[in-house]
Each structure stands twice: as C-alpha cells, then as structure tokens.
Design brief:
Elements (H helix, E strand, L loop, with lengths): L1 E2 L6 E2 L23 H23 L24 E2 L2 E2 L3 E2 L5 E2 L3 H54 L7 H90 L5 H99 L7 H27 L5 H26 L1
Antiparallel strand pairs: 1-2, 3-4, 5-6
Helix pairs in contact: 2-4, 2-5, 2-6, 3-4
C-alpha cells in the first residue's frame, strides 16, 4: 500500500492512480528492486522498508507534525486533511484558518470518480488475468519439476525407507507395461499370419467359384444352342409332314392327270419320306443331348453355388478373425495405457514424496531449489491476486453512487433543454 500525495488515501501498490481522487501516482523510483532481480521474498522486504519509511515521516491524525513536513500535510498537497479516505467538514491549514469546500468541485470530483472506478476495474482485471496466467504457468512448471525429481530418483537409485513402496510399485507398473507391449507385438505378428492364411483360402475359394460359374455359363450356352437346334428341326419336320400330306391329297385327286404327274408325286413323296426319317433321327439325338446337357447344367450350377457358399464362408471367417485379433490388440493397448497411466501417477507421487522428505542427496539439490523458487512464485502471485481482490472492496460507494446520480441528472437536464430548444 502507498499513500496519495494529494488526499493521503492508502492505495494498492499495483495501481498507477489513486482510486479516491483520481490523481496519478509518481513514477516508481529507479532504485526500487524488481521481482526478477531479488525474488518474491526480497521484493516483500523492500516494500516493507519503504512502508516503514513512509510511516516514520507521515503526520499522525489529529496531532501536529514533529519532523519534516510531508506532502500529505502541506497546504500545497491537497489544501485539506482527510481521515481514512473521507473528507472532513472543516480542515486545518498551516495557519489554522478554516477552509470551506467548493460544492461545484465536489460534484465534478464525484462525476470524475466514475472514470476512476471504471479505469481501476479494467486495470485490475487485466492484471488479475495476467497474474492467474503466470500462476498457472508456474504450477505447470512445478508439476514438471516434481516429475523430473522423481525421474532423477529413479535414474540415480536414491534409496529411502519411506520411498521403497513407491519404487516397487513403479517397477511393477513398468513390468506390466513391458508385458503388455510384448503381447501386443505378438498379437500383431499372429494377426498378420492369420490374415495371410485366410486370405489365401479366400483367394482359392474365389478362383474355384469363378471356374464353376464359368463352366455353368458354358453349359447353359450349349443347352440353349441345342434347344434352338431341336426347335428348328421340329419346325422343319412339321413343315415336311404338311408337304407330304399335301402330296398325298394331290396324288389321290390326280387319278386322271396322267402317269407322268403320278410318277413325279411318287418321287417327291419318297424324297420327303427319306428326309422325314432323317429329321426324326436328328430330333431323337437332340432330345438325348438336351437331357444330358440339362443334367450337366444343373450339376454346374450346384457346383457354382457350393463354390459361392465356400467363398462367402471364407470371407466371413477372415472378417471374424480380423475382428477378434483387433479386439485382442485393443485389449493389449488398453492394458499398456493403464500401466503407463499408473506409472505416471506413481511417478508424480514419488516426486511429491521426495520433495516432502528431502533425502540428502547431492544430485537432488538443484531440483529442490527449482521447486522452492516455483512455490515462492505461486505464493507471490496468489498473494498479489488476493491483494487486488481486497483492493476492489475499498472504493467509495457513496461517492460513486453520487457521481452516477449527478451524471444522470446532467444528461437528463441536457436532453430536456435540447428538447425544449428544438421543440
């Protein structure tokens, strides 16, 4: 906290202006140490020394100054005295004469306090967000430092009676992780071999189905061609029979036509009879072929259907085997992830336990110092955030409400005047 040189109001150190009167503070002395140069503890000591010096030179309330006059007690500083940030009805000057406060100046100060309040809110919010980000970063670094401390303990083989249980648990977790990794590799190799075997079976079944389907299609083509020949022979035989019937009728009706016509008809009838006999033999042969081809086509279709069923079975077996192997590998991966998560949790616990026990080992001293610095940074940022939140409750609510009321009244009066002027 530091006082304002105009109104002597105590304000937070992070503020650049007074929340009571709105005057900006003087720039910080170049000699004031910073957090990066002296650390949080050194900075607290420096601020405590500065506050103690201000207490020595400040004038007590209601008493005369005994030493060197301060800015808050001189007439040039503010022209009035304040008590706990609230104005007195009558203030004493250096000569003891009473000074009356200007109402107009008081109203202007109340209205200007709105800007002071809003600006302070924005600045405090921005600073709070930055401090929270810095604290979160320090917490992340602290977690990494604790993990690094645990890794150093594991690497250097640091022994302690209270750490034996954690070290054994971490060893078991690492063993489970390695076992799960080995099982996962074996499952992957088995999956590849099984996939190759089932793939070969599927390829053989597909080749067999392709050949059976081709043979069935060829048999169907031959059957259709033979059936077409048989239908053609049947049609030709029917036409031949009709021709013979016509010749027989003509021969019967041509008794007076002469011997020459009769001999011609007899010759034609004989030729048609020989042709009909050949067609009958051809049709009988085609019928036997059709019967054989139908049986062969049915057998080919049955073989193709069996080959198709074998192919579908091989595809389903390959799919089921792949699903089972994927499930097995997923289980191994889950076991490995659980083991790694358990090992990480135990490592974090080992780091925290080591930090609490502080075994006297040379390789751990730098890690201890780093953790201490991060803890101090987190504590300092938390203290600054708490100070900002505490400073937010020290505003003059009465003055703020008065300024809002006056500003509203001025705006309403201006609007009414403009309305009346332009009506």
């Amino acid at each position: 906290m530091r006082p304002c040189r105009h109104c002597a109001h105590q304000s937070a150190d992070h503020l650049s202006f007074c929340p009571q009167c709105g005057h900006r503070f003087a720039a910080t002395s170049p000699g004031l140490p910073t957090l990066g140069s002296v650390g949080p503890r050194g900075l607290d000591r420096a601020y405590a020394t500065a506050a103690f010096s201000r207490t020595l030179v400040a004038t007590a309330r209601g008493a005369a100054a005994t030493g060197r006059a301060t800015v808050a007690s001189t007439p040039s500083g503010s022209g009035r005295m304040r008590t706990n940030g609230q104005p007195n009805a009558r203030a004493q000057t250096g000569s003891g004469r009473p000074v009356s406060r200007s109402r107009l100046r008081w109203a202007a100060g109340s209205i200007g306090y709105i800007y002071v309040f809003l600006r302070d809110k924005l600045d405090a919010g921005e600073r709070r967000r930055r401090l929270i980000e810095e604290r979160l970063g320090a917490e992340a670094l602290l977690s990494g430092a604790l993990n690094g401390l645990a890794l150093v303990v594991l690497r250097e083989g640091v022994q302690h009676a209270d750490l034996t249980g954690l070290l054994e648990a971490i060893g078991r977790a690492h063993a489970r992780r390695e076992s799960a990794a080995a099982d996962m590799a074996a499952s992957g190799t088995l999956q590849q071999a099984e996939a190759a075997r089932l793939g070969a079976q599927e390829a053989a079944a597909e080749a067999q189905w392709t050949a059976s389907d081709r043979a069935s299609r060829d048999a169907d083509e031959i059957l259709r061609a033979t059936a077409a020949d048989r239908n053609s022979a049947s049609a030709r035989l029917a036409r031949l029979k009709d021709e013979r019937s016509r010749i027989a009728r003509e021969k019967t009706n041509n008794d007076a036509g002469g011997e020459a016509r009769a001999a011609q008809l007899a010759h034609e009838a004989l030729g048609l009879a020989h042709e009909q006999r050949a067609l009958d033999e051809q049709i009988e042969r085609l019928d036997r072929q059709l019967a054989d081809l139908r049986d062969s086509s049915a057998a080919s279709r049955a073989a193709a259907a069996a080959a198709r069923a074998n192919l579908e079975q091989a595809v389903a077996a390959r799919r089921d085997a792949a699903s089972a192997m994927a499930t097995s590998i997923a289980g191994r991966q889950r076991d490995r992830a659980d083991a790694e998560r358990e090992a990480a949790d135990l490592t974090d616990q080992l780091g925290r336990a080591t930090n609490d026990l502080r075994p006297p080992h040379g390789v751990l001293l730098s890690a201890y110092q780093n953790i201490d610095r991060l803890n101090e940074t987190i504590a300092d940022r938390s203290a600054q955030i708490a100070a900002i939140e505490q400073a937010q409750a020290h505003y003059d609510q009465r003055k703020l409400l008065t300024g809002v009321g006056l500003l509203t009244s001025v705006l309403v009066a201006t609007a009414a005047a403009l309305w009346a002027a332009f009506k």
